Amino acid sequence: MADIMMNVQEARTQNTFTALMWAFSHPGHPRPLPKTNLAPFFAIGETLVDLETSYYSSHDGLGQQLARLGGRPRSPQEAMYQFYPELGDADLLDLEMAPVGTYTYPDHSATLVLGVEFDVGTRIRLSGPGIPETTELFVEGIPQSFWSLREKKVQYPLGWDVFLIGDGQVVGLPRTTIVEVL
Amino acid sequence: MTPSETVAELAHPRQDYSYAFLDEFAKRELRRRILKAIAIPGYQVPYASREMPIARGWGTGGLQVTLSLVGPGDVVKVIDQGDDESVNAANLRRFIARMAGVETTSDTLEATLIQSRHRIPEEQLREGQALILQVPIPEPLRWVQPSVAKTREMHADADYALMWLVLYEQLVRFGEFVTGASYPVIVHRRYLMTPSPIPRWDTPKLHQAAHLTILSAGREKRLYAVPPYTDVYPIEFDDVHFSVERQTEGVCQMTGVSHKYMNEIPQPDGSSRYVLSDTSFADKLLKQKRGERVTIGEIYFDDKGNFYHAGYLKS
Amino acid sequence: MAYVATRGGEKAIQRAEQLYRALNGAFDADFVRAIERHMPYLMDRVMGEGSLYAPEMAALALAQAGGDLYEAVLLLRAYRSTLPRLAYAEPVDDEALLAVRRVSAAFKDIPGGQILGPTLDYSHRILTTQVLDNGHEASRPEPEAAEKPAPTNYPSVSGWHRLTGLMTRMEEHEPPDPAELPDVTREPIVFPASREHRLQSISRADTGGILALGYAGMRGYGLTHPTVNEVKLAYADVRLRHPITGAVFSAGRIRVTHTEVVSTSADGLELGFAATMGWNEVKTIAAAMLDMEMSKPEPHPAHTEEFVLYHTEPVEASGFCIHFKLPHYVTFNSALDSIRRVRSRREGGNRLQQMIQTAVKEKAS
Hints:
The complex is a heterotrimer. By secondary structure, chain A is α/β, with parallel strands linked by helices. Helix content of chain A is 28%, strand content 27%. Chain A has a single domain (8-181), classed as Bacterial phosphonate metabolism protein PhnH (Rossmann fold), CATH 3.40.50.11310. Chain A has helices at residues 8-25, 40-48, 60-67, 89-95, 145-153, and strands spanning 31-32, 54-57, 72-73, 81-84, 111-115, 117-127, 135-140, 161-166, 169-173, 178-181. In chain A, the strands form two sheets. In chain A, strands 1-9-8-5-4-2-3 form a seven-stranded mixed β-sheet. Chain A has a three-stranded antiparallel β-sheet with strand order 7-6-10, with no helix packed on it. Chain B has a domain at 24-234: Rossmann fold (3-Layer(aba) Sandwich). Chain B contains seven helices and twelve strands. Chain B has helices at 7-10, 24-39, 60-69, 87-100, 148-156, 161-174, 279-289; strands at 45-46, 75-80, 103-104, 113-117, 130-134, 185-187, 191-193, 212-217, 222-226, 232-234, 262-266, 272-276. In chain B, helix 2 crosses helix 3. In chain C, helix 3 packs across helix 4. Chain C is α+β, with helices and mostly antiparallel strands. Chain C has two domains: 9-81, no CATH class; 94-139 and 147-319, no CATH class. At the B-C interface, helix 2, helix 4, helix 5 and strand 11 of B face helix 1, helix 5, helix 12 and helix 13 of C.
């Protein structure tokens, strides 16, 4: 029987998902996102969003692209997948309200995709599941107060889970990761 | 579909199934759930659970996870009771190979994805490997509380008192813990989890592991995960500790090793013989004995039965 | 051939399957067509539980499975899993159903009338062995056309109840967007279940399971005293909206069963409802009664929504049942280890006791 083949989209989503899965499994450890003709934010949207879930984007252009995936557009208070290519201070007010789940359903919580730059900016130390002792990272492009907001909103098992995207790489910060700003 | 893709890119020879059998919607839903499961270690994430061409209860949950992870570059190992050649393992492996066009192996070290029913291999798994365990009953509280709605509340409140009571009652009645396989554990200091019906021997392998473990129950429609380097502690008391099955008596008839998990083979005269449960590990040892070249990985339990994380097993 | 201890597991599987097929004998397209033509109620059961209305496929599933009903349902469900979702049909109005059989136990006569339709209800259950002796059936009288044809659709009996105030009226509302409706095949059921999930689960449920639990309710374990308000065997048009013109058209007809039961209480009438694809009166009557039991605040433990819906899922129930044939020797070994430990502890304890008793005796003497 002929070998079964992936089409281009299947290959793209499988590779993107694999990067996301290992990013959450080893938080703080950057993974390369597959090099495709799609912008990384849209590639992640394509991998995770469809008519069975909801999304929000702070960037109109990206929002229009994501609309084609069939997902339900919702406000930051409700959307399960939220995309912030450039997280500004004003966006933090929205993030304050992003769903953190309930004790009965902690999985009914938002996944945030944030645009950053790595290797410059704020130094953070990470520990928790997926990290043998600690690991450190430099992150630029998000407001400093994001980290204290995260500490406030992420109270395990509740919280949102974050992907940081920069330079074609992804870093995972699931709610289990403890972040110390140095 | 985006406009920049060419027709040539989109076209491929006609196939009756999507890659890896599951359509993109099914895969996407599974992938969303898997990410949440990794973010909330030990918490049972409900998922739709598609019907598969294999009966429920026979590994459809594990299969759905494997199929949503697998890509052409993966190498897949499938075992049942530790045996690659078990009819059910062979059947699942055949399906995965057919539907994903992947290479398969029995070598634990070569595999990138290991789907297993009821055992974790004897050779240590490393970073970058995913272990997918088949789960019949994902709810550790099932035997003290049959209602799914009620156990959900118990997990929400971390109300696990009944499990400690069960352990205590065992001590009073039998003088020790008698729970065998599926020994309940606490993951990342929060969720009570069943590690699936793996023997107690395998339970410690989940603690601070280099590999990722995903557990999936197709029929019950729940999946959960233990990320790498995560605390997994079996429930026990400060003064009465969890212990693994005694493997001191068994010496493998084929390879001569001891202090590994054995299958007991009853003999007509009432005695028993023992054979290594991990068949590919046994194969490697036999190859080594014959002088053939073979790479045997680091093992979890050494020849004296010491676990590789010193101090973890207190008895 | 040996079981797990066999190496070459794949060969064993292939041989087992070959043996199975050899025992069943070969079949051809004619045989499949014969099933489709002459076993409509078996087909309806497979399609209803298989959750897929595809008569040719259902007949093939039955032929391929050698008549094993659970296998046939699994084949159809697995096939359904691979099919893309193209569109949602327009909602079906029960008063617009093309009904061929409609009866009510609640009243002697009802608007539209009681029509027996095709049924064996009042026949004598005697095997017609002449077929075997003579090679063919005795000549059957052809059904004569009635002078006045029966109506094709019927006003709803529960509609009458609502009109007369015996049952609370339903609120008017916009028809929901079908894409927004909870779908039990796309998301996991959680409890308490939505009405949609409950009715969908019942529609696909195992007939035997629903019957057993429903029967228990009828015999006295239930809290309600139901009367069959209406049982309808009908054809439903599958109406679709043209993607470009927006015109609604019928893509064909499927057989459906629509059943309502009512329970009388001093406050008024309660309604229990069940519907399924295919004609299956036993399932829908029992299920409609269970619908009422499940809605009670404190049902019998075997009639809670969770108990009923989980345990009447045919593919899950039969699959898990037969999974017990799979090797479980690792877990069994672990259990034996526990038994042996306890035993040796007890023996150790006994020996210790004996030693103490001996020592005490010796001391005393």
